[in-house]
Amino acid sequence: MDTSGPAAFVNGEILNMYVGRRVRTVVQAQREEGGLLIGQSTDGHQLTIKGASGAPMLRYVEIIGIAESNQTIRAEVCTDFGENFDPAPFNGLCKLANGQMKDMFL
Amino acid sequence: MDSDAAMSVTVTPGAVAHIMENPSPNTDTEAVPEIVVQVVDLKPVGARLSFTASDGKDKIKAILPSQYVQVVRAGNLQNLGLVRILDYTCNNVADRPDKVLIIIKCEVVCKSMDSEIKSEADKQEEEKKPAIVLTPKEEEESVVVFKPTNALPPAPVALKPKQEVKSASQIVNEQRGNAAPAARLAMTRRVHPLIALNPYQGNWVIKVRVTSKGNLRTYRNARGEGCVFDVELTDEDDVIAVYGEQLRVLVYRLGTQIQATMFNEAAKKFYPMFELGKVYYISKGSLRIANKQFKTVHNDYEMTLNENAVVEEAEGETFIPQIQYNFIKIDQLGPYVGGRELVDVVGVVQSVSPTLSVRRKIDNETIPKRDIVVADDSSKTVTISLWNDLATTTGQELLDMVDSAPIVAIKCLKVSDFQGLSLSTVGKSTVVVNPDLPEAEKLRAWYCSSLKHFYFLVLSVILSTLFLDIILLNRYDSEGKGTSMASVGSDMGGSRAGGARLMYTDRVFLSQITSDPTLGQDKPVFFSLYSFISLIKPDQTMWYRACKTCNKKVTESVGSGYWCEGCQKNDAECSLRYIMVIKVSDPTAEAWLSLFNDQAERIVGCSADELDRIRKEEGDDTYLLKLKEATWVPHLFRVSVTQNEYMNEKRQRITVRSEAPVDYAAEAKYLLEEIAKITAC
């Protein structure tokens, strides 16, 4: 298994800690502005995703990519999670993975 | 004389049947009986002539050898004429169910007739005959598929009385007189479809694409040294229009494949010429029945090209035949282990190893190799070893994109028992990344949906790890007979959607039940579980015969029918109701649960009567499949735990009282709450 580029579970707030590194998160697509996708993170922040065009609005999209700033991610992979996704558990997971359970994750 | 003349001006009834029953007459020992047939649909095919031989009632496709072409050209035999067949052979053409009559020797009886001879009975039958229904064939290459094509006009032509077969190129030629020069050139070069090739016809030209090129290998045998290589050739997909009584049917024929082998001088000559993916006109090859032991291409014949063969590159000609796959699901690979048959596989790439160098024992040569792990929707993974170029170039490509979970379709893999079961590429294997196939779409959809639940699984792993930590460090005090057992999750309360509410009360892990044998001693204790079904034993007694009225067990009564003790009556019929044990698993333990009819029906997906019918009528395989589909599915169970005594031993019995499907969002919320509780202290 290739573990050389692990992606950390992040939400809007935690993204800050991983600028320049590979992250994974789920956002709800809000609107598109000139090729950039504006999505709402699971903790209510607005994030800008580069390279994730074509996502239908109000659907949840998983983004894996490099965090360019504390609000921008350059997407490498996008996966459509549809409309039926509860953001709350994911948010909880992000907090655990970066908080108490940090040792369990790469 | 007169009667002779009269006799010869018609066909021999039953001639076709006779030919088919005697496909290879021995003309040395006896003369062929009088066979006169009418020549219908006479048309040139390459350097010979094909026609349909009719005896007034039956028809058979036939080929006239090249020496009769002059006869026809001179007008001494025309369409609707009669011929007496003196020597023939009747052949099975590769992959076609119908036979072909090869005329070896014949003489013209009557050069032309006014019309097609039909027996009276046949005429009436034809009027009533429905439109042609073409049944799909078994083999891939001749799949009959109704597909629209751009080359042909959109509106179907109305009623045509005769049954005629025209190839698409003929139709297009007729309709587009002003075709571009290049296209016309291709069509005037009479190209034979690969499917029509057989060893008895020497004069053919085929237009094929090299879809696989083997390596130039050297060999040594009793006669000395030599070299050999082979190629796989595929011809163009084609559309044939078949005119029936009521409608025109377009039959899409996928390109056929044939293997062509070249030895020594021919191998050296053609090896640099043949390039993978390019199109060539080939003629003067020889055909023979394929050696089933070595063939990997679906064709009854195989071709050999010697130095006299003519190979010409078709300039500017390209057709890309669809690569025809026959995908095997990863969990179905078992039977192929150690065999010669190569398999095709499609799946999602989960990991790619770095390139390794392997030293071959035979000649000490080092070859690059890379292992990839691929998963498909049979929920199984397999390791595929890519060798040589596939390891270096394609392997690198996959490594670069592994995070995006690319889908690969790989053709021609060898199945070996290395590390249980693994796949390996061979010289002719091809790898297509993210192919444009419906199977790839399906896999992508399966993968995405399983990805969503991934986060939920991560949470459950966190919770179970925490829980197990507590168990190991701080054993539960079991004085209070089950009270401590329920403490994890007992004060859930909260608001949960109606029916599922119960599934969060007294939620435990399996180990909490199995590790406490004192549970349920006096009266049953109830718990909720989230676990996966890990096994449904197919050879257990799964049901009992039940009374249709009260569902109690019935016994077979003397005579016929069933006796119900509860209703005190006999019934001719009974229903089957499930009673079985299933094995379930969760991150902490495994256990056997007793399962009854209502929940079993939901889990298996059909009633006991239906499953019994499936087992009897559709066979064991379908029955096993049905059980397999229920395996590794997670469920929420409400169970009761009691203690039984069996042979002086106390045993724990866990019975399913109700079942509910998993609501992942609700589960995830529950897990988070539990984690919070555990980590709070």
From TrEMBL, chain A:
GO biological process: DNA recombination; DNA repair; DNA replication
Lineage: Eukaryota, Viridiplantae, Streptophyta, Embryophyta, Tracheophyta
GO molecular function: DNA binding
Record-given protein name: Replication factor A protein 3
Family: Belongs to the replication factor A protein 3 family.
Keyword list, A-Z: Nucleus
InterPro entries xref list: NA-bd_OB-fold, Rfa2
Main location as per UniProt: nucleus
Automatic annotation (TrEMBL), chain B:
Domain Replication factor A C-terminal stretches: 526-671
InterPro entries: Euk_RPA1_DBD_C (IPR047192), NA-bd_OB-fold (IPR012340), Rep_factor-A_C (IPR013955), Rep_factor-A_N (IPR007199), REPA_OB_2 (IPR031657), Rfa1 (IPR004591)
Primary localisation category: nucleus
Location within or outside the cell: Nucleus
Pfam family, one: Rep-A_N
GO cellular component: DNA replication factor A complex
All copies of domain Replication factor-A protein 1 N-terminal, residue ranges: 11-110
Domain (Replication protein A OB) ranges: 341-434
Tagged with keyword Ligase: no
Keywords (A to Z) from UniProt: DNA damage, DNA recombination, DNA repair, DNA replication, DNA-binding, Metal-binding, Nucleus, Zinc, Zinc-finger
Superkingdom of origin organism: Eukaryota
GO BP annotations listed: DNA recombination; DNA repair; DNA replication
The keyword Plastid belongs to this UniProt entry's keyword annotation: no
One term of GO molecular function: DNA binding
Biological role stated in the UniProt entry: Component of the replication protein A complex (RPA) required for DNA recombination, repair and replication. The activity of RPA is mediated by single-stranded DNA binding and protein interactions. Probably involved in repair of double-strand DNA breaks (DSBs) induced by genotoxic stresses.
Quaternary structure (record): Heterotrimer of RPA1, RPA2 and RPA3 (canonical replication protein A complex).
PANTHER family from the UniProt entry: OS03G0429900 PROTEIN (PTHR47165)
Family affiliation: Belongs to the replication factor A protein 1 family.
UniProt name for this protein: Replication protein A subunit
Species for this entry: Leersia perrieri
